[in-house]
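Hey Z.,

So I finally got round to the magnesium ion thing we talked about over coffee. Here's the setup:
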Amino acid sequence: MRFSQAFIPTTKEAPSDAQLASHIFLARAGFTSQVAAGLYNYLPLGKRVLKNIENVINEEMTASGAQEVDLSFVTPADLWAESGRIEKFGKELLRFRDRKENLFVLGPTHEEMMVNLVRNRVTSYKQLPLNLYQIKTKFRDEARPRFGLMRGREFVMKDGYSFHANEEDLDREFDAMEAAYKRILERLGLEFRVVEADSGAIGGSGSKELMVIADSGEDTIAICDSCEYGANVEAAKRSDRQDIPAAPEADFNKFQTPGVTSIEALAAFFKVDPYYTMKCVAKRLIYEDGDQVVLFFLRGDDELQEVKAVNAAEALDIADVSEEELTALGLVPGFMGPLDMDKVPCVFDTGLKDAKQLICGANEKDYHYVGVDMSVLKDALFKDLYSAREGDGCPNCNGKLHYRKGIEVGHIFKLGTTYSKPLKAEFLNEKGQSEPFVMGTYGMGVSRLIAATVEQHHDEKGCIWTRETAPYLVNVMVSNIKDEAQLDFGEELYVKLKTAGVEVILDDRKERFGFKMKDAELIGFPYTVIVGKELENGNVQIVERATLEKSEVTAASVFDAIMDRLK
Ligand code: ATP
Ligand code: MG
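And the result:
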């Protein structure tokens, strides 16, 4: 490609709402342009990066035996009613009617469509397993589209779905997909972690996220400093605490505690470690058929993890409750406790199991109980509610957990029969009996990967593309195109590299050197060959974008020097 003919509208202006480096640089360097909130055009450079990523994904998917399909983007609403997701997905589903008044949905993900494709076509265990995937535009009417390609409303996803005769075979495929996803991210040159994810109401350990490590990531992950363990904080576990503080000694009693409404004040009042206080967090849980206030109890030094709370209460979502609402329910904010609590449901963190010598609210203004033993609470519901903290013990080894920020670029999930059952997608097993397919789903954010790459690889000047993502690997820059020798040499090198199969662009624009260099840095080609004044002495320069290191090589050896670096 010749820069002089390319459509690469670089600009000094960053989008007014842009905060992230990827959002700013992809716009400024002419990779993408915004159409409306969460909607983007890909210009030639952006499209090339997108295709590069798609190619890597396609190669790894093909190598692992998955087959590519392409399903309709417009999906019948009936299918979403069949699975029950038309309500669950809520406003993120963009619906519309056609001229015959049929209701449709723009596909935000394709479980229903894929099950519909396979049901009644795959009818015997002999046709299993099957792994079908596509790379496709998705639409989700996100409440807050932001950060450019990171969270669009229209975006490109690789979504794969596997069908199996039993759980064991799903486990095998799940591991194979995890391995394939790791290879993809390695090839793309990204630092990442595979972490355990929240599996929602389905539960189990069959959900993992692939997180690209970046300070700007929206997810917090807890990773072990000595083993492979990593988990989204939404799902992170920890080992049992070793350094348990000495227990206070007290018989069961009620104490007056005027104005003591915080854990801090409570621990100070009784001179005990917060570990021996009971924290009560009241939340509004949202269900399909209405709301319900629930009290969550944890040890005083723990924090409630809201996703865990939603799962524990088998709810759809969670929201805050005001003190007025609590008072209206007959509760006493600041002094709520589990004893004789008959007004709202209670859930207890597993850390409170068998706990003794606790201090908790007495459900009476300005009173707390001391010396509470959890065994007095018959039929208490215990669930993991805590948020794992930095420094907590790793659940797998003796290591310590650390927090990092991550960008979720992939999510693999053991679905089991969650969709095949309601959609009645069945096959005949070896005994000739009908059974629903056991399924897995494997998503990867293709357009998000473009942004994630820039988040991880950029500096203050612009993007730094990796080997497999770069729109062009080499930029041959002719410093002054009026200099015939420079232009001729540049042309020659450009043709030679192109013939050798290198993705190369020739900057033959009639612009100042400084201007062209700024563009090269902003766009982020891995290597720029500067053909300038030094050519008179038989020398040119190679600039490596990642380090901005310049090396002088002879004009005669520059082709080999480049090929060497690309090896
Ligand atoms: P998030 O938690 O970021 O909203 P999600 O859990 O809704 O993501 P999935 O349904 O698991 O996402 O979709 C699979 C992948 O698609 C995600 O891992 C992510 O990389 C990508 N993705 C999801 N939503 C968007 C979006 N709005 N814009 C760009 N990529 C997205
Ligand atoms: Mg996800």
